UniProtKB/TrEMBL annotation:
<dbReference type="GO" id="GO:0051539">
    <property type="term" value="F:4 iron, 4 sulfur cluster binding"/>
</dbReference>
<keyword id="KW-0408">Iron</keyword>
<dbReference type="InterPro" id="IPR039650">
    <property type="entry name" value="HdrA-like"/>
</dbReference>
<keyword id="KW-0411">Iron-sulfur</keyword>
<keyword id="KW-0560">Oxidoreductase</keyword>
<dbReference type="InterPro" id="IPR036188">
    <property type="entry name" value="FAD/NAD-bd_sf"/>
</dbReference>
<dbReference type="GO" id="GO:0016491">
    <property type="term" value="F:oxidoreductase activity"/>
</dbReference>
<dbReference type="Pfam" id="PF12831">
    <property type="entry name" value="FAD_oxidored"/>
</dbReference>
<protein>
    <submittedName>
        <fullName>Putative FAD-dependent oxidoreductase</fullName>
    </submittedName>
</protein>
<keyword id="KW-0004">4Fe-4S</keyword>
<dbReference type="GO" id="GO:0046872">
    <property type="term" value="F:metal ion binding"/>
</dbReference>
<keyword id="KW-0479">Metal-binding</keyword>
Length: 438
C-alpha cells in the first residue's frame, strides 16, 4: 500500500543568481550563455559531469535542419557559434545536404559528441556562467505565482538556488513539474514518441556505404526490420569527423521516460537493440563488413515527455500556414517528423520550398507562473507541432531567446516577470546577436 511520507533535509549551501537554468542540454547551455552575455549572473544545473544532453549523452551526433528546402537559413546565432567552435577543434563536418534512408532530403552538420562537451565547457566558462554539475532538482519552493527557490541534490548536500528567473531546460521539465505546473495531455490516438539508443560502429568503408542508392538502402532497412534484426526500418547514420566510424540512429523504445523504472529498462533494451543492429550491419550492409560496435550513448535519446501548458499552445496548423507571430523569438524549417511508439515506420510531413515557421515567446511561458520559462522539447506545443520544433538546432535558437529574455526580466524593478519583457527590445537584441526570427 502506498503511503505519503514527508522527510526533512538540511540546506547545505545557498546560491543567489539572477537566472537559474535547470538542465544543461544544448537548449539550457545556450540559455545560460545568452543570459550571462546579456549581463545576468547565471547558475546552470546539470545532472551529468558534462553539458549537452541529447547532443552528448544521447550521442545524436548531427545537428539537422538549418535551412528551408530552398536553402534559406532559418537557424543561426549561438547555434552557428557552436558549429564554428566545433570546427576549430576539428570536431565538425561541413554543412551539407543528404538523403535519409527513408528517402527524405535533409541538411545537417555532423559532429563529434566528445568535442561538443569541450565546446560547451568553453562557452559557459567564458561567459561567466557558474555550472553546478552532478546535481539534480529535488524540490521547488513557490509562493503564489512566484518561484522562490530551487533545491538541488549534490554530492555536498542540498543546495538552495535563489534566482529572479527560472529557466527549465531539463527536457522532462522536472523543475516546473515539482513546482506544480500544468502539462498538455496527448489526444486520442497519440502516443509519446519513442526513445532511441544511439551507437557507434566502425570502421565503415564510406565510399561503398554512401554509394548505395536510396532504393538499396530502403530495401536493406526493410529486410533488417522484417527479419527482426532492426527495431525500425531505417539505417540513419552520421559520420564521426575523426575516424571511419558512424553513429547509428535506428532503435525504437516506446516508453514514458519520466518513469524511472521504464527508463532504466529501456536503456537495457536499447543496448540489446544496438548489438543486434550492429551484427546485421556486419553481415548484410555493404561497406560495414569490417565494423564492430564501438560505443553506446550514455543514455537513450528521448524525443518527447512533458510539454507545458503555456500562454500559447503552438499547433501544427500554425507551422504549416505558417502563422506570423508578433512575439516570434526563433524560426525553424524541420518537418513534422513523428516516430510511432511501435512499428517500423514514421510519419514525415516535409515543408518544401522556402517554407519556414516561427516559435512565439508565449509558448515558453508556463501558465500560473510569473518568473519562469521552459525551453527545449518541453515548450508549449501540440504533439504534432512538437514533432517539428523538438530538434536540437531549433532548441538552441529557443534557448538563446529565453536566456536574453530572462536577463531582461531579472533587471531591477522587473522582479523576474517574464511577461513584462518588451518584445521589440528582445527581438532587436536577438537580431543583433545573429539570430534568425523568420
Amino acid at each position: 500500500m502506498m503511503q505519503d511520507k514527508t522527510f526533512g533535509y538540511r540546506i547545505a549551501k545557498t546560491i543567489d543568481a539572477d537566472v537559474a537554468v535547470c538542465g544543461g542540454g544544448v537548449a539550457g547551455a545556450m540559455a545560460a550563455v545568452a543570459a550571462a552575455r546579456a549581463g545576468a549572473s547565471v547558475v546552470l544545473v546539470e545532472r551529468y559531469g558534462f553539458l549537452g544532453g541529447n547532443a552528448t549523452a544521447g550521442a545524436v551526433a548531427q545537428f539537422n535542419s538549418w535551412q528551408t528546402a530552398n536553402g534559406r537559413r532559418v537557424v543561426a546565432g549561438l547555434a552557428d557559434e557552436v558549429v564554428a567552435r566545433l570546427g576549430r577543434y576539428g570536431g565538425a563536418g561541413e554543412h551539407a545536404t543528404f538523403v535519409m534512408s527513408t528517402g527524405h532530403r535533409m541538411d545537417r552538420v555532423e559532429y563529434a559528441p566528445e568535442v561538443l562537451k569541450l565546446v560547451l565547457d568553453d562557452m559557459v566558462q567564458e561567459a561567466g556562467v557558474r555550472p553546478l554539475l552532478h546535481a539534480s532538482v529535488l524540490d521547488v519552493r513557490v509562493t503564489g505565482r512566484h518561484i522562490d527557490s530551487v533545491h538541488v541534490l549534490t554530492k555536498s548536500g542540498v543546495v538552495e538556488l535563489r534566482a529572479q528567473v527560472l529557466i527549465d531546460a531539463s527536457g522532462d521539465i522536472d523543475a516546473l513539474q515539482r513546482a506544480g505546473a500544468t502539462f498538455l495531455e496527448l489526444d486520442d490516438g497519440e502516443a509519446l514518441q519513442p526513445a532511441t539508443m544511439m551507437f557507434r560502429f566502425g570502421p565503415i568503408d564510406f565510399a561503398r556505404f554512401e554509394a548505395l542508392s536510396k532504393t538499396e538502402i530502403a530495401a536493406l532497412a526493410r529486410r533488417g526490420y522484417d527479419d527482426g534484426q532492426l527495431a525500425r526500418a531505417a539505417l540513419h547514420s552520421s559520420r564521426d569527423p575523426f575516424s571511419a566510424d558512424g553513429w547509428f540512429n535506428i532503435g525504437r523504445l516506446g516508453i514514458d521516460a519520466t518513469d524511472a523504472m521504464a527508463l532504466g529498462a529501456a536503456e537495457i533494451e536499447g543496448r540489446r537493440q544496438a548489438w543486434k543492429a550492429a551484427q546485421y550491419l556486419r553481415r548484410c550492409v555493404p561497406g560495414c563488413e569490417e565494423g564492430q560496435l564501438r560505443a553506446f550513448g550514455t543514455q537513450v535519446g528521448v524525443r518527447e515527455t512533458r510539454r507545458i501548458v503555456g500562454d500559447h499552445v503552438l499547433t501544427s496548423e500554425e507551422l504549416l500556414r505558417p502563422e506570423q507571430f508578433p512575439d516570434a523569438i526563433a524560426a525553424g524549417a524541420y518537418p513534422i517528423d513523428i516516430h510511432p511508439a511501435a512499428g517500423g515506420e514514421l510519419r514525415y510531413e516535409g515543408l518544401g520550398g522556402d517554407h519556414a515557421y516561427q516559435i512565439p515567446y508565449r509558448s515558453l511561458i508556463p501558465v500560473g507562473f510569473d518568473n519562469a520559462l521552459a525551453v527545449g522539447r518541453g515548450v508549449s506545443a501540440t504533439h504534432s507541432a512538437h514533432a517539428a520544433i523538438r530538434v536540437m538546432t531549433i532548441s538552441m535558437a529557443v534557448g538563446q531567446a529565453a536566456g536574453v529574455a530572462a536577463a531582461m526580466a531579472a533587471q531591477p524593478k522587473q522582479y523576474g516577470k517574464v511577461r513584462a519583457v518588451p518584445m521589440s527590445a528582445l527581438r532587436e537584441r536577438l537580431l543583433a546577436d545573429g539570430a534568425q526570427l523568420a
